[in-house]
Design a protein that fits this description.
Elements lengths: L2 H10 L20 E7 L10 H11 E12 L13 H8 L3 E7 L11 E8 L2
Parallel strand pairs: 1-2
Antiparallel strand pairs: 2-4, 3-4
Length: about 120
Amino acid sequence: MSGNRFKFWLLAAGLAARFDLADFLREAAPVRFDWIFEHTLFCAINPSRRDDYVRAVKRWLKPRGQFLAVHYMIRDTDGPPFGCTQQELMERFSPHFELRQGWVPRSYPNRTGLELMLWWQRKQ
């Protein structure tokens, strides 16, 4: 959907949105958010930068903010995408976030059983 069509759709639905371009891993958030949703972004980041990613999610969310993420659970190490395990996700996120719920989402046919959706809440 083009930017103009998306803005029209938001207006027609009675919704408002603000779009900012920023380097999520490096920059301060223009505002802090109630929710962050990501779909298989964590696996695209080099494992050496994953702590930067966790810090960014924490930095961009308000205290008690919600983080909903679909993770691509593969074993590859020569990515992107890079491999990820549930244990790694728990170790990296649980010091800063409380896990609310986790489940296997409905996926594209070639990813069936390879994705894990986790709903976290930022600790205060």
